[in-house]
Amino acid sequence: MKNKYIILTLVMVLQFGGVIAQDWELLNSGTEFHLYQITFPPNQKMIGYAAGSEYHNPSDGIILKTTDGGDTWNKIYPKQGYVDNILCIWFVNENEGYAGGMPNKLLKTTDGGDTWNEVTNLPSNSNTAVLDVKFYNEDKGIVQAVREGGGDFYVTKDGGASWSLTAEFSSAGQPSDIAYIDENTLRLVTPNGNVWQSYDGGINWKELTWLPVGTYSLDFSSTKFVVGSYGLVWFFDIDEPWDESNLVGKAFGGGLGYWNDILTLDDGRTYAVGRSEHIFGTEDGGKHWGDQLFVADDGKTLNCIEYASEGTIFVCGDGGRIYRKRGVTTSIDKKKAQLVNRIYPVPAGNELNIDFIEGDDKEIVIYDQLGAVRMRHSSVQETSIKLDITTLSSGYYIVSIHTKKHIENLSFIKQ
Predict the structure, then answer these.
(1) pTM score, two decimals?
(2) Domain 4-325 part of CATH 2.130.10.10
(3) In principle, which of 127, 180, 241, 345 could form an S-S bond with 136, CB 3.0–4.6 Å?
């Protein structure tokens, strides 16, 4: 979640050693509005969108678009007049996208942002604002809405044709960030330090663990889960249960308050953005950190960091700030690729069949609900494989498929 103005007000200073290259470009967004989220459709680095509002309280909203990789940005919504705050934005492809804001408003476009229409089939409730929207693919998505004293999730599994009102949460447990692990598995963090997981696409949630500080941002790679909190960045090994006893690295801050957003890549590089216009980075999984960017301690918060594609990263923040970093090579592209054609039967008995799209060399790893590795198969080159899962207990599992360039996470239920 990048809309931290609702809960965050502190400004502090953080110092890390080991500065690495400061090659971030400040782009001309054409606005001084505060930009809360920036998004690029899958496999896109040229077409992107940013959303925000004039002030950190009820005020005018805005949506920007670039078609040249960030060199120029144009206001596309509203075309004239005024609209209320736009707090979040997400595009599932180049044409179809969603934006949310106040008052309890979810907008949808099917023509690349040229026109926007309000989604009118959300279940009726007393929510006052849409804070976040995320989609795993064109069909499955989740919306977080908030009201006085709490809020709700809306889930769709048919591309927005219908929405279900699912889990409720209190104001104390309001999620600060949500991430899809696979099409059915989501994780979220809260300002209270709670880490929750859903195994059914966001319908039901269970608490995984609790961290002794507030948690505000979340990301994952093929090997690590990374959480940003108050002056800290936590790294957890994906092969082990998600609790503090299996912590593999954290960056102590003294400092800079809340990390509004985290981006982690499969080669160990991780970036954190937050208060006072800092971008911190590590190239070794959190052991050493460098201040990649510090412009001025003028209260300009950086709110969101997004990997576009082909080695390009964008950051947006207060005062219309948009930064770009190019040439970020990584062994596995952050954007997921489809590797599996079919996984069956559902639910599975003592055998699990996986049909792959291609016969590239791959590794198959099966994790249980706590993130522990229960099965691993390396150097798989077949286009179809039958796995003996007799030793697995009944329950929910995640299958992670790795190739040299891509990763795909799927899930199954063992009877």
Answers:
(1) 0.75
(2) yes
(3) 180
The third-level CATH classification (topology) of the domain covering 340-414 is Immunoglobulin-like (2.60.40)
How is the chain split into domains, by residue range?
A: 4-325, 340-414
pLDDT digits (tens, 9 = 90+) for 240-261: 555 555 555 555 443 446 788 9
End-to-end CA distance of the chain: 35
Q: Cα–Cα distance between 18 and 8 in angstroms, integer?
A: 28
Question: Is the pLDDT higher at 395 or at 67?
Answer: 67
pLDDT score of 371: 63
Q: What is the pLDDT of residue 231?
A: 66
